[in-house]
Q: What sequence folds into this?
């Protein structure tokens, strides 16, 4: 077990719990344990900061959670924020209706972001900056998590309009065998897919149509599979399907329960901390320029990452002030051309990468590797998400790069961590293996997890959080390091045995009004009574729809907020969400609606 | 025979900004060769070593040519060829 800051002599003080969002306070505490921070005491005053970080070399650092003016934090819950910020919309695309993920997702994301901002501020202080106060807007964190989907839905040209419930929630992965076992299939190449369906006697034309949907599920959060494919699988026992998949080179991962995951040999270490850090050589980072406005100014990161997890980690580091240089293959990252595009670049790609510089490097050539070594000589962090074993194969592993830059943080944002699973570690295979898919399915009334790339996003946040912790450790103790995090580690944190349970609500739901959907979540008796006052009657879920049909969602929201009832508009269409003035403080405008930094520093 | 080709955004600089162009050919390969004569450089963006580029999907009507005969897939008058950049895993 390695907790990055365990030897650092840090303590922290927790603030008062948010009345309607206690899981966020629990997640902050859980993350502090994972980091190895000693809990000193709790402050009960309602206006106390959410956390304070204490260390003999630091001026006291405090981090506050802030609501948006029209989305007050004291009236935000996991549920209402998932509604307000589009997570229900994206998850709803393939789950039948706008609904919550059924896990403490935004608590985990925002706890990670809160600690990340705090640790970055501490790094900034030690590098000569004057950062003592951090604020984090959880709504901003929530919007960041769907930033790519928001970009796709608001591009000027060829914007995607994908609405909750438009697809059959039962005609998407995971797949089902004759005996009713649920499983994910995964391949990143069309030919194994084609061979597999040929073996199942599905025509090429059908397999090809299924492939297009399957391929795009990462980007679009929908994957309607042709009935011919589902029927062919439903006729065969799992063992037969497994054999065919193995023959054809398609990975198959059966959905497991959280209890099965908790019983894995690698689980205790993964649950103790989502990062594994090993110290590298003793080395003091090079000459420093004091950061002025953002805490990681002067930190240089090299990022060799594809897809979502790694690029999101790099994006977060740019928001904290780091200079991030993306290493892309000659000709550029192929994801740049995924529609919808604006100004010659995929908006989805742009959402995660527009703040970075790009250098094209052929990492497979000796010249390219020499270039990477040369770049590392001036870098603080090297971040990659290559397939397992590739860094060693390319001689670009931590030990190799420490030879060029001893103080480097060599970070790997991987899939499986220490688990031995014979499948690509992607969002959906890890959801299946970790129990996240089963948990989401039981909460959503579907068969499987979410097609929203929930783990890629959380994994990216966790990776960036670990990098900030490792940078802090380096500032204090002067050595490079090797840092691993994974999608599976992120999943284990999300389903944490002690703090992962959902808060019980007295009344929670998404209801139709005369105009638009309204999410309501009464966590306390007081909130429930306030809702009774607003409605003029006991809020019986059977009669609520009828009562709420009397006025628009906006009117009900105003009434709920005035009465102190957690509620929000549950936007179905992300293009409409993008124009919601309540969210405007967290949004920006590029060739699409972009998401601003969730942090501010003073 | 004439086939309409739907051009993705990123290739439109090569087709003078046109979203849809017409081209001739018996197979997808011939059609791409003919397109390349009119719009030089387009072939290099679609084909590599006589295979469809790994990160490009080409559809004849709704059918992915990787699930038919690849570049040898036969086309008929009135067919529609669609080029879509597509990358697995995000």
A:
């Amino acid at each position: 077990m390695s907790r990055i800051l365990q030897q650092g002599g840090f303590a922290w003080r927790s603030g008062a719990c948010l009345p309607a969002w206690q899981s966020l306070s629990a997640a902050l505490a859980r993350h502090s344990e994972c980091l190895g921070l000693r809990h000193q005491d709790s402050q009960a005053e309602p206006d106390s900061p959410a956390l304070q970080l204490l260390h003999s070399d630091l001026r006291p650092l405090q981090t506050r959670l802030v609501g948006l003016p029209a989305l007050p934090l004291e009236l935000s819950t996991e549920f209402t924020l998932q509604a307000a910020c589009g997570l229900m919309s994206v998850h709803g695309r393939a789950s039948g209706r706008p609904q919550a993920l059924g896990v403490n997702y935004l608590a985990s994301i925002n706890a990670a972001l809160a600690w990340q901002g705090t640790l970055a501020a501490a790094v900034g202080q030690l590098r000569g900056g004057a950062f003592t106060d951090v604020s984090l807007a959880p709504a901003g964190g929530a919007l960041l998590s769907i930033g790519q989907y928001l970009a796709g839905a608001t591009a000027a040209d060829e914007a995607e309009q994908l609405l909750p419930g438009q697809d059959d929630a039962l005609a998407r992965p995971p797949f089902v065998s004759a005996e009713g076992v649920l499983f994910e299939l995964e391949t990143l190449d069309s030919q194994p897919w084609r061979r597999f369906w040929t073996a199942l006697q599905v025509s090429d034309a059908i397999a090809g149509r299924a492939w297009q949907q399957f391929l795009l599920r990462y980007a679009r959060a929908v994957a309607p599979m042709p009935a011919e494919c589902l029927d062919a699988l439903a006729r065969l026992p799992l063992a037969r399907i497994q054999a065919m998949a193995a023959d054809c080179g398609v990975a198959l991962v059966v959905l497991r329960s959280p209890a099965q995951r908790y019983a894995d040999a690698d689980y205790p270490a993964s649950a103790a901390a989502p990062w594994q850090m090993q110290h590298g050589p003793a080395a003091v980072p090079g000459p420093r320029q004091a950061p002025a406005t953002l805490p990681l100014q002067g930190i240089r990161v090299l990022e060799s990452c594809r897809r979502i997890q790694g690029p999101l980690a790099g994006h977060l580091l740019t928001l904290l002030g780091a200079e991030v240089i993306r290493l892309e293959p000659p000709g550029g990252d192929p994801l740049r051309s995924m529609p919808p595009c604006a100004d010659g670049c995929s908006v989805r790609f742009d959402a995660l990468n527009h703040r970075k510089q790009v250098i094209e490097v052929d990492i497979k050539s000796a010249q390219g590797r020499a270039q990477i070594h040369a770049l590392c000589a001036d870098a603080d962090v090297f971040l990659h998400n290559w397939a397992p074993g590739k860094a060693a194969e390319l001689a670009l592993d931590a030990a190799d790069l420490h030879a060029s830059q001893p103080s480097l943080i060599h970070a790997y944002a991987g899939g499986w961590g220490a688990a031995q699973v014979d499948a690509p570690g992607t969002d959906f295979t890890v959801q299946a293996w970790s129990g996240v898919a089963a948990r989401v399915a039981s909460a959503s009334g579907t068969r499987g997890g979410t097609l929203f790339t929930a783990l890629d996003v959380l994994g990216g946040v966790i990776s960036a959080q670990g990098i900030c912790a490792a940078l802090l450790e380096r500032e204090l103790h002067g050595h490079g390091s090797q840092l691993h995090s994974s999608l599976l580690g992120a999943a284990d944190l999300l389903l944490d045995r002690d703090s992962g349970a959902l808060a019980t609500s007295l009344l929670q739901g998404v209801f139709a009004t005369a105009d638009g959907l309204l999410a309501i979540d009464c966590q306390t008796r007081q909130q429930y009574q306030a809702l009774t006052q607003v409605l003029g009657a006991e809020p019986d879920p059977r009669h609520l729809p009828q009562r709420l049909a009397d006025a628009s969602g906006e009117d009900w929201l105003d009434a709920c907020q005035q009465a102190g009832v957690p509620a929000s508009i549950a936007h179905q269409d992300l293009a409409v969400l993008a124009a919601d003035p309540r969210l405007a403080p967290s949004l920006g405008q590029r060739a699409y609606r972009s998401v601003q930094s969730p942090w501010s520093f003073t | 025979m004439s086939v309409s080709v739907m051009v993705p955004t990123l290739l439109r600089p090569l087709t003078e900004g046109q979203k849809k162009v017409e081209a001739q050919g018996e197979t997808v390969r011939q059609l791409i060769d003919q397109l390349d004569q009119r719009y030089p450089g387009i072939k290099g963006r679609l084909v590599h070593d006589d295979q469809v580029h790994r990160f490009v999907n080409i559809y004849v009507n709704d059918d992915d040519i990787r699930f038919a005969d690849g570049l040898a897939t036969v086309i008929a008058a009135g067919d529609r060829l669609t080029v879509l950049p597509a990358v697995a895993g995000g």
Summary: The helical segments of chain B are 28-38, 42-46. The interface with chain A takes residues 8-10, 13, 54-55, 57, 59, 62-64, 66-68, 84-90 of chain B (CB under 8 Å). The mean pLDDT of chain B is 91. The longest strand of chain B covers residues 80-85.
